[in-house]
Amino acid sequence: MPEVTTVILNQAGINRALTRIAHEILEHNKGTEDLVLIGIRTGGDHIAGDLADRIAAIEGEKPPLGAIDITMYRDDLDSRGSLPLGRTEVPFDVDGRKIVLVDDVLYTGRTIRAAMDALIDLGRPRNIQLAVLIDRGHRELPIRPDYVGRNVPTSREEDVAVDFDAERHPCEVRLIKP
Amino acid sequence: MSFGHKHILGIEHLSREDIFQILDTAAGFKEINTRAIKKVPTLRGRTIINLFFEASTRTRTSFEIAGKRLSADTVNISASSSSVVKGETLEDTARNIEAMHPDIIVMRHGASGAPHYLAERLDCAIVNAGDGAHEHPSQALLDLFTIREKKGSLEGLKVAIVGDIAHSRVARSNLYALTRVGAEVRLAGPGTMVPPGIEKLGAEVHHDINDAIRDADVVMMLRIQLERQGKTLLPSLREFSRFYGLNQDNLKLARPDALVMHPGPMNRGVEIASSVADGPQNVILDQVENGVAVRMALLYLVAGGEATEES
User: Fold this and answer.
1) Residue spans of beta strands (DSSP E) within B246-290
2) Which domain holds residue A68?
3) Which UniProt keywords apply (chain B) (predicted)?
4) A30 Cβ under 8 Å from any chain B Cβ
5) pLDDT digits (tens, 9 = 90+) for B57-80
6) Could you say which architecture CATH assigns to the domain B16-135+289-303?
7) What is the number of CB-based contacts under 8 A between chain A and chain B?
8) What is the DSSP letter of B128?
9) What CATH number has the domain spanning B137-284?
10) Is B285 part of the contact surface with chain A (CB cutoff 8 Å)?
Protein backbone atom coordinates (compact mmCIF):
# COMPACT_ATOMS: atom_id res chain seq x y z
CA MET A 1 0.00 0.00 0.00
CA PRO A 2 1.47 3.35 -1.00
CA GLU A 3 1.61 6.13 1.57
CA VAL A 4 -0.98 8.87 1.28
CA THR A 5 0.24 12.34 2.17
CA THR A 6 -2.08 15.27 2.85
CA VAL A 7 -0.92 18.82 3.43
CA ILE A 8 -2.69 19.95 6.58
CA LEU A 9 -1.00 23.31 6.99
CA ASN A 10 0.69 25.36 4.24
CA GLN A 11 3.09 28.29 4.58
CA ALA A 12 0.29 30.86 4.95
CA GLY A 13 -1.48 28.72 7.54
CA ILE A 14 1.74 28.24 9.53
CA ASN A 15 2.42 32.00 9.44
CA ARG A 16 -1.06 32.80 10.74
CA ALA A 17 -0.82 30.17 13.49
CA LEU A 18 2.63 31.26 14.69
CA THR A 19 1.74 34.97 14.60
CA ARG A 20 -1.34 34.22 16.69
CA ILE A 21 0.74 32.17 19.17
CA ALA A 22 3.25 35.04 19.42
CA HIS A 23 0.39 37.42 20.31
CA GLU A 24 -1.06 34.93 22.79
CA ILE A 25 2.31 34.48 24.53
CA LEU A 26 2.70 38.27 24.85
CA GLU A 27 -0.85 38.75 26.05
CA HIS A 28 -0.65 35.96 28.61
CA ASN A 29 2.74 37.10 29.96
CA LYS A 30 1.98 40.82 29.65
CA GLY A 31 5.06 41.51 27.53
CA THR A 32 8.55 40.05 27.38
CA GLU A 33 9.79 40.66 30.92
CA ASP A 34 11.51 37.49 32.26
CA LEU A 35 10.20 35.64 29.20
CA VAL A 36 12.44 33.07 27.50
CA LEU A 37 11.78 30.61 24.69
CA ILE A 38 13.35 27.15 24.77
CA GLY A 39 12.86 24.78 21.84
CA ILE A 40 13.16 21.01 21.94
CA ARG A 41 15.66 19.58 19.44
CA THR A 42 15.15 18.95 16.63
CA GLY A 43 12.23 20.86 15.20
CA GLY A 44 11.06 22.68 18.32
CA ASP A 45 14.26 24.75 18.38
CA HIS A 46 13.56 26.03 14.85
CA ILE A 47 9.99 26.93 15.75
CA ALA A 48 11.16 28.68 18.93
CA GLY A 49 13.51 30.80 16.79
CA ASP A 50 10.65 31.68 14.45
CA LEU A 51 8.39 32.62 17.38
CA ALA A 52 11.14 34.77 18.94
CA ASP A 53 11.44 36.74 15.69
CA ARG A 54 7.67 37.27 15.55
CA ILE A 55 7.59 38.42 19.18
CA ALA A 56 10.44 40.84 18.43
CA ALA A 57 8.50 42.23 15.43
CA ILE A 58 5.41 42.84 17.58
CA GLU A 59 6.98 44.01 20.81
CA GLY A 60 10.33 45.41 19.68
CA GLU A 61 12.22 43.14 22.05
CA LYS A 62 13.47 39.62 21.32
CA PRO A 63 13.23 37.15 24.20
CA PRO A 64 16.34 35.05 24.98
CA LEU A 65 16.39 31.81 23.03
CA GLY A 66 17.61 28.37 24.11
CA ALA A 67 17.52 24.79 22.87
CA ILE A 68 17.45 21.54 24.79
CA ASP A 69 18.17 17.99 23.79
CA ILE A 70 16.17 15.48 25.81
CA THR A 71 17.97 12.27 24.83
CA MET A 72 19.53 11.98 28.32
CA TYR A 73 16.06 12.16 29.88
CA ARG A 74 14.31 9.55 27.76
CA ASP A 75 12.53 6.61 29.37
CA ASP A 76 13.17 4.17 26.53
CA LEU A 77 16.91 3.38 26.65
CA ASP A 78 16.06 -0.31 26.93
CA SER A 79 13.79 -0.47 23.91
CA ARG A 80 15.45 2.05 21.61
CA GLY A 81 19.10 1.86 22.63
CA SER A 82 21.55 4.73 22.81
CA LEU A 83 20.20 7.39 20.50
CA PRO A 84 22.58 10.09 19.23
CA LEU A 85 22.95 12.97 21.64
CA GLY A 86 22.29 16.58 20.62
CA ARG A 87 23.55 19.72 22.33
CA THR A 88 21.72 21.56 25.06
CA GLU A 89 22.34 25.29 24.73
CA VAL A 90 20.65 27.46 27.31
CA PRO A 91 22.99 30.48 27.54
CA PHE A 92 21.12 32.19 30.38
CA ASP A 93 19.99 31.53 33.93
CA VAL A 94 16.53 29.93 34.08
CA ASP A 95 15.92 30.82 37.74
CA GLY A 96 12.80 32.97 38.08
CA ARG A 97 12.17 33.00 34.31
CA LYS A 98 8.89 32.37 32.55
CA ILE A 99 9.83 29.62 30.11
CA VAL A 100 7.84 28.90 26.99
CA LEU A 101 8.81 25.37 25.99
CA VAL A 102 8.37 24.94 22.23
CA ASP A 103 7.93 21.75 20.20
CA ASP A 104 6.71 21.08 16.70
CA VAL A 105 4.32 18.15 17.27
CA LEU A 106 2.71 17.19 20.60
CA TYR A 107 1.83 13.49 20.74
CA THR A 108 2.15 11.18 23.80
CA GLY A 109 3.54 13.92 26.05
CA ARG A 110 6.59 11.81 26.99
CA THR A 111 8.99 14.18 25.24
CA ILE A 112 7.49 17.11 27.17
CA ARG A 113 7.83 15.19 30.46
CA ALA A 114 11.52 14.61 29.65
CA ALA A 115 11.96 18.27 28.63
CA MET A 116 10.44 19.52 31.88
CA ASP A 117 12.81 17.28 33.87
CA ALA A 118 15.70 18.66 31.83
CA LEU A 119 14.61 22.27 32.47
CA ILE A 120 14.23 21.74 36.18
CA ASP A 121 17.76 20.30 36.32
CA LEU A 122 18.99 23.65 34.97
CA GLY A 123 17.38 25.68 37.76
CA ARG A 124 14.07 26.84 39.18
CA PRO A 125 11.99 28.66 36.59
CA ARG A 126 9.01 30.72 37.74
CA ASN A 127 6.77 28.77 35.43
CA ILE A 128 6.88 26.59 32.31
CA GLN A 129 4.37 27.05 29.52
CA LEU A 130 4.03 24.86 26.45
CA ALA A 131 3.64 26.00 22.83
CA VAL A 132 3.27 23.52 19.95
CA LEU A 133 2.62 23.94 16.26
CA ILE A 134 0.54 20.74 16.02
CA ASP A 135 -1.35 18.83 18.71
CA ARG A 136 -2.16 15.38 17.32
CA GLY A 137 -3.69 13.89 20.49
CA HIS A 138 -3.06 10.44 22.06
CA ARG A 139 -1.61 11.74 25.32
CA GLU A 140 -0.16 9.14 27.69
CA LEU A 141 0.63 11.65 30.47
CA PRO A 142 -1.41 14.49 32.06
CA ILE A 143 0.14 17.23 29.89
CA ARG A 144 -1.73 19.94 27.97
CA PRO A 145 -0.36 22.76 25.80
CA ASP A 146 -0.96 26.44 26.55
CA TYR A 147 -0.59 27.53 22.92
CA VAL A 148 -1.56 25.38 19.93
CA GLY A 149 -1.14 26.18 16.24
CA ARG A 150 -3.56 23.54 15.01
CA ASN A 151 -5.33 20.55 16.56
CA VAL A 152 -5.13 17.62 14.15
CA PRO A 153 -7.10 14.46 14.93
CA THR A 154 -4.93 11.49 13.94
CA SER A 155 -4.78 7.75 14.36
CA ARG A 156 -1.72 6.15 15.95
CA GLU A 157 -0.78 4.58 12.63
CA GLU A 158 -0.50 7.96 10.98
CA ASP A 159 2.52 10.24 11.13
CA VAL A 160 2.75 14.04 11.20
CA ALA A 161 5.74 15.62 9.47
CA VAL A 162 6.78 19.26 9.81
CA ASP A 163 9.05 20.41 6.97
CA PHE A 164 11.52 23.25 7.35
CA ASP A 165 13.02 25.44 4.62
CA ALA A 166 16.72 26.25 4.22
CA GLU A 167 16.41 29.06 6.81
CA ARG A 168 14.91 26.54 9.26
CA HIS A 169 11.48 28.14 9.18
CA PRO A 170 8.55 25.73 9.13
CA CYS A 171 7.04 25.73 5.64
CA GLU A 172 4.60 22.80 5.50
CA VAL A 173 2.89 20.27 7.73
CA ARG A 174 1.89 16.93 6.24
CA LEU A 175 -0.25 14.06 7.51
CA ILE A 176 1.10 10.71 6.32
CA LYS A 177 -1.26 7.71 6.23
CA PRO A 178 0.46 4.33 5.91
CA MET B 1 20.88 4.29 15.55
CA SER B 2 22.53 2.25 18.27
CA PHE B 3 26.19 1.70 19.06
CA GLY B 4 27.49 -1.42 17.37
CA HIS B 5 29.59 -2.79 20.24
CA LYS B 6 28.55 -4.50 23.45
CA HIS B 7 31.95 -3.92 25.08
CA ILE B 8 34.71 -1.33 24.81
CA LEU B 9 37.80 -3.53 24.92
CA GLY B 10 40.14 -1.49 22.77
CA ILE B 11 40.42 0.99 19.94
CA GLU B 12 41.75 -1.70 17.60
CA HIS B 13 38.25 -2.97 16.87
CA LEU B 14 36.56 0.44 16.54
CA SER B 15 35.93 2.00 13.15
CA ARG B 16 36.42 5.65 12.31
CA GLU B 17 32.60 6.04 12.52
CA ASP B 18 32.51 4.43 15.99
CA ILE B 19 35.21 6.83 17.19
CA PHE B 20 33.34 9.88 15.91
CA GLN B 21 30.06 8.60 17.40
CA ILE B 22 31.79 8.40 20.81
CA LEU B 23 33.34 11.88 20.45
CA ASP B 24 30.04 13.44 19.35
CA THR B 25 28.19 11.79 22.24
CA ALA B 26 30.83 13.06 24.67
CA ALA B 27 30.38 16.58 23.30
CA GLY B 28 26.70 16.38 24.26
CA PHE B 29 27.56 15.22 27.79
CA LYS B 30 30.30 17.79 28.40
CA GLU B 31 27.82 20.58 29.09
CA ILE B 32 26.45 18.72 32.15
CA ASN B 33 29.81 18.96 33.91
CA THR B 34 29.60 22.75 34.07
CA ARG B 35 26.04 22.91 35.45
CA ALA B 36 25.15 23.67 39.04
CA ILE B 37 23.26 20.35 39.19
CA LYS B 38 25.68 17.92 37.57
CA LYS B 39 23.38 14.98 37.13
CA VAL B 40 21.07 13.56 34.50
CA PRO B 41 18.82 10.51 34.93
CA THR B 42 20.04 8.67 31.83
CA LEU B 43 21.37 5.50 33.54
CA ARG B 44 19.09 5.51 36.57
CA GLY B 45 18.82 2.04 38.04
CA ARG B 46 21.96 0.71 36.33
CA THR B 47 24.82 -0.69 38.37
CA ILE B 48 28.41 -0.10 37.32
CA ILE B 49 31.30 -1.86 39.06
CA ASN B 50 34.77 -0.38 38.80
CA LEU B 51 37.01 -3.41 39.19
CA PHE B 52 40.59 -2.19 39.53
CA PHE B 53 43.41 -4.70 39.91
CA GLU B 54 46.00 -1.94 39.48
CA ALA B 55 46.44 1.34 41.26
CA SER B 56 44.62 4.24 39.66
CA THR B 57 43.31 7.50 40.97
CA ARG B 58 42.54 9.55 37.90
CA THR B 59 40.92 6.91 35.71
CA ARG B 60 38.93 5.28 38.50
CA THR B 61 37.67 8.62 39.85
CA SER B 62 36.83 9.76 36.34
CA PHE B 63 34.79 6.62 35.61
CA GLU B 64 33.12 6.87 39.01
CA ILE B 65 32.11 10.50 38.48
CA ALA B 66 30.96 9.70 34.94
CA GLY B 67 28.68 6.93 36.22
CA LYS B 68 27.32 9.04 39.07
CA ARG B 69 26.56 12.02 36.83
CA LEU B 70 24.48 9.65 34.69
CA SER B 71 22.62 8.52 37.87
CA ALA B 72 24.02 4.98 37.77
CA ASP B 73 25.00 3.30 41.02
CA THR B 74 28.76 2.90 40.99
CA VAL B 75 30.72 0.56 43.22
CA ASN B 76 34.52 0.50 43.42
CA ILE B 77 36.51 -2.63 44.06
CA SER B 78 40.28 -2.46 44.25
CA ALA B 79 42.52 -5.50 44.28
CA SER B 80 44.31 -4.64 47.50
CA SER B 81 41.07 -4.74 49.47
CA SER B 82 39.44 -7.67 47.68
CA SER B 83 39.58 -11.45 47.82
CA VAL B 84 42.23 -11.36 45.06
CA VAL B 85 44.78 -11.11 47.84
CA LYS B 86 43.27 -14.26 49.30
CA GLY B 87 44.07 -16.19 46.13
CA GLU B 88 40.82 -16.07 44.16
CA THR B 89 41.18 -16.40 40.38
CA LEU B 90 40.15 -13.58 38.04
CA GLU B 91 37.29 -15.63 36.65
CA ASP B 92 35.94 -16.50 40.10
CA THR B 93 36.14 -12.89 41.23
CA ALA B 94 34.28 -11.79 38.13
CA ARG B 95 31.63 -14.52 38.39
CA ASN B 96 30.93 -13.58 41.97
CA ILE B 97 30.53 -9.97 40.99
CA GLU B 98 28.30 -10.90 38.09
CA ALA B 99 26.02 -12.86 40.40
CA MET B 100 25.07 -9.46 41.86
CA HIS B 101 23.81 -8.37 38.41
CA PRO B 102 25.87 -5.35 37.46
CA ASP B 103 25.12 -3.87 34.02
CA ILE B 104 28.66 -2.75 33.28
CA ILE B 105 32.06 -3.74 34.67
CA VAL B 106 34.79 -1.15 34.17
CA MET B 107 38.03 -3.01 34.53
CA ARG B 108 41.75 -2.37 34.90
CA HIS B 109 44.17 -5.27 35.04
CA GLY B 110 47.91 -5.72 34.81
CA ALA B 111 47.59 -8.53 32.27
CA SER B 112 46.99 -7.72 28.60
CA GLY B 113 43.75 -9.32 27.43
CA ALA B 114 42.17 -9.71 30.87
CA PRO B 115 39.03 -7.73 29.89
CA HIS B 116 38.71 -9.75 26.68
CA TYR B 117 38.89 -12.94 28.73
CA LEU B 118 36.02 -11.78 30.94
CA ALA B 119 33.98 -10.43 28.04
CA GLU B 120 33.85 -13.96 26.63
CA ARG B 121 32.68 -15.42 29.93
CA LEU B 122 30.28 -12.88 31.42
CA ASP B 123 26.96 -11.48 30.21
CA CYS B 124 27.42 -7.87 31.31
CA ALA B 125 29.20 -5.21 29.28
CA ILE B 126 32.94 -4.76 29.90
CA VAL B 127 34.76 -1.46 29.53
CA ASN B 128 38.54 -1.71 29.48
CA ALA B 129 40.15 0.92 31.71
CA GLY B 130 43.66 -0.31 30.89
CA ASP B 131 45.01 -3.83 30.40
CA GLY B 132 48.73 -4.37 30.84
CA ALA B 133 50.75 -2.80 28.06
CA HIS B 134 47.92 -3.45 25.60
CA GLU B 135 45.21 -0.77 25.42
CA HIS B 136 43.70 2.12 27.35
CA PRO B 137 40.84 3.08 25.05
CA SER B 138 39.17 5.77 27.18
CA GLN B 139 42.49 7.64 27.47
CA ALA B 140 43.00 7.68 23.69
CA LEU B 141 39.41 8.81 23.14
CA LEU B 142 39.71 11.69 25.61
CA ASP B 143 42.99 12.66 23.93
CA LEU B 144 41.26 12.74 20.54
CA PHE B 145 38.35 14.68 22.02
CA THR B 146 40.75 17.28 23.47
CA ILE B 147 42.72 17.59 20.22
CA ARG B 148 39.53 17.96 18.16
CA GLU B 149 38.16 20.54 20.58
CA LYS B 150 41.33 22.65 20.38
CA LYS B 151 42.23 22.13 16.71
CA GLY B 152 38.78 21.83 15.16
CA SER B 153 39.53 18.54 13.40
CA LEU B 154 41.85 15.54 13.54
CA GLU B 155 42.56 14.75 9.93
CA GLY B 156 46.08 15.53 8.71
CA LEU B 157 47.40 16.62 12.11
CA LYS B 158 50.97 15.65 12.98
CA VAL B 159 51.07 14.03 16.41
CA ALA B 160 54.35 13.12 18.16
CA ILE B 161 54.18 10.49 20.90
CA VAL B 162 57.39 10.40 22.91
CA GLY B 163 58.78 8.13 25.63
CA ASP B 164 58.40 4.49 26.58
CA ILE B 165 56.29 3.34 23.63
CA ALA B 166 56.82 -0.36 24.26
CA HIS B 167 55.20 -0.45 27.68
CA SER B 168 52.55 2.17 27.04
CA ARG B 169 48.93 1.17 26.53
CA VAL B 170 48.22 4.88 26.06
CA ALA B 171 50.60 4.99 23.07
CA ARG B 172 49.09 1.87 21.53
CA SER B 173 45.48 3.02 21.84
CA ASN B 174 46.38 6.48 20.57
CA LEU B 175 48.25 5.01 17.63
CA TYR B 176 45.19 2.99 16.60
CA ALA B 177 42.81 5.89 17.16
CA LEU B 178 44.86 8.65 15.53
CA THR B 179 45.72 6.67 12.40
CA ARG B 180 42.09 5.64 12.03
CA VAL B 181 40.90 9.24 11.95
CA GLY B 182 43.59 10.28 9.50
CA ALA B 183 46.23 11.89 11.71
CA GLU B 184 49.94 11.35 11.13
CA VAL B 185 51.64 9.66 14.09
CA ARG B 186 55.36 9.90 14.88
CA LEU B 187 56.76 7.80 17.70
CA ALA B 188 60.02 8.58 19.43
CA GLY B 189 61.91 6.82 22.19
CA PRO B 190 65.15 5.02 22.95
CA GLY B 191 65.70 1.75 21.08
CA THR B 192 64.91 -0.31 24.15
CA MET B 193 61.53 1.38 24.46
CA VAL B 194 60.23 1.18 20.89
CA PRO B 195 58.86 -2.23 19.94
CA PRO B 196 60.28 -3.55 16.67
CA GLY B 197 57.78 -3.57 13.82
CA ILE B 198 55.46 -0.93 15.28
CA GLU B 199 55.79 1.10 12.06
CA LYS B 200 53.57 -1.57 10.47
CA LEU B 201 50.69 -0.03 12.42
CA GLY B 202 51.10 3.16 10.42
CA ALA B 203 53.51 5.25 12.48
CA GLU B 204 56.83 6.88 11.68
CA VAL B 205 59.51 5.82 14.17
CA HIS B 206 62.28 8.18 15.30
CA HIS B 207 65.04 7.80 17.83
CA ASP B 208 65.72 11.52 17.99
CA ILE B 209 62.99 13.45 19.76
CA ASN B 210 63.69 16.51 17.59
CA ASP B 211 62.75 14.65 14.40
CA ALA B 212 59.42 13.63 15.91
CA ILE B 213 58.57 17.05 17.32
CA ARG B 214 59.52 19.13 14.27
CA ASP B 215 56.38 20.89 12.89
CA ALA B 216 54.13 18.74 15.09
CA ASP B 217 50.61 19.98 15.91
CA VAL B 218 50.50 17.89 19.07
CA VAL B 219 53.28 16.62 21.35
CA MET B 220 52.13 13.82 23.60
CA MET B 221 54.59 12.84 26.33
CA LEU B 222 54.37 9.42 28.00
CA ARG B 223 55.09 8.69 31.60
CA ILE B 224 58.30 6.82 32.39
CA GLN B 225 56.95 4.03 34.54
CA LEU B 226 59.52 4.24 37.30
CA GLU B 227 57.85 1.43 39.26
CA ARG B 228 58.11 -1.03 36.38
CA GLN B 229 61.07 -1.27 34.05
CA GLY B 230 62.85 2.03 34.50
CA LYS B 231 65.92 0.37 35.89
CA THR B 232 66.78 -2.12 33.21
CA LEU B 233 65.89 -0.18 30.07
CA LEU B 234 67.54 3.11 30.91
CA PRO B 235 71.09 3.96 31.89
CA SER B 236 69.77 6.78 34.05
CA LEU B 237 66.76 9.05 34.35
CA ARG B 238 69.01 12.07 33.84
CA GLU B 239 70.19 10.72 30.54
CA PHE B 240 66.64 9.91 29.46
CA SER B 241 65.55 13.40 30.41
CA ARG B 242 68.37 14.93 28.41
CA PHE B 243 67.63 13.00 25.23
CA TYR B 244 63.89 12.41 25.41
CA GLY B 245 62.48 15.00 27.79
CA LEU B 246 60.30 17.82 26.51
CA ASN B 247 61.58 21.27 27.43
CA GLN B 248 61.17 24.84 26.27
CA ASP B 249 64.02 24.52 23.77
CA ASN B 250 62.95 21.45 21.84
CA LEU B 251 59.28 22.46 22.02
CA LYS B 252 60.22 25.42 19.77
CA LEU B 253 60.68 22.92 16.94
CA ALA B 254 56.96 22.12 17.00
CA ARG B 255 54.38 24.44 15.51
CA PRO B 256 53.95 27.56 17.63
CA ASP B 257 50.36 26.55 18.38
CA ALA B 258 51.23 22.91 19.16
CA LEU B 259 49.41 21.29 22.07
CA VAL B 260 51.39 19.67 24.88
CA MET B 261 49.67 16.60 26.31
CA HIS B 262 50.42 14.09 29.06
CA PRO B 263 48.18 11.28 30.30
CA GLY B 264 49.40 11.73 33.89
CA PRO B 265 50.72 11.23 36.44
CA MET B 266 53.67 13.38 35.34
CA ASN B 267 57.28 12.90 36.38
CA ARG B 268 58.21 16.56 36.39
CA GLY B 269 61.80 17.08 35.34
CA VAL B 270 62.01 13.61 33.76
CA GLU B 271 59.87 13.32 30.63
CA ILE B 272 58.51 16.85 30.85
CA ALA B 273 60.01 20.07 32.22
CA SER B 274 57.85 21.97 34.67
CA SER B 275 58.07 25.10 32.53
CA VAL B 276 56.41 23.17 29.67
CA ALA B 277 53.94 21.26 31.84
CA ASP B 278 52.67 24.56 33.24
CA GLY B 279 53.25 26.52 30.02
CA PRO B 280 50.66 28.13 27.78
CA GLN B 281 50.57 25.24 25.31
CA ASN B 282 49.67 22.56 27.85
CA VAL B 283 46.18 21.06 27.75
CA ILE B 284 46.86 18.48 30.46
CA LEU B 285 43.99 19.50 32.71
CA ASP B 286 41.65 19.82 29.71
CA GLN B 287 42.42 16.14 29.10
CA VAL B 288 41.32 15.31 32.65
CA GLU B 289 38.16 17.43 32.35
CA ASN B 290 37.21 15.89 29.01
CA GLY B 291 37.85 12.42 30.43
CA VAL B 292 34.64 12.58 32.42
CA ALA B 293 32.53 13.48 29.36
CA VAL B 294 34.17 10.79 27.22
CA ARG B 295 33.62 8.14 29.89
CA MET B 296 29.98 9.22 30.24
CA ALA B 297 29.67 8.64 26.50
CA LEU B 298 31.23 5.17 26.72
CA LEU B 299 28.96 4.11 29.60
CA TYR B 300 25.87 5.51 27.83
CA LEU B 301 26.69 3.80 24.54
CA VAL B 302 27.35 0.35 26.01
CA ALA B 303 24.34 0.65 28.36
CA GLY B 304 22.04 1.12 25.36
CA GLY B 305 22.98 -2.36 24.21
CA GLU B 306 21.46 -3.56 21.02
CA ALA B 307 18.22 -1.76 20.26
CA THR B 308 15.12 -3.92 19.97
CA GLU B 309 13.17 -1.36 17.96
CA GLU B 310 14.29 0.99 15.20
CA SER B 311 13.65 4.66 15.85
Assistant:
1) 259-261
2) 4-72+88-177
3) Pyrimidine biosynthesis, Transferase
4) no
5) 999 999 999 999 999 999 999 877
6) 3-Layer(aba) Sandwich (3.40)
7) 74
8) E
9) 3.40.50.1370
10) no
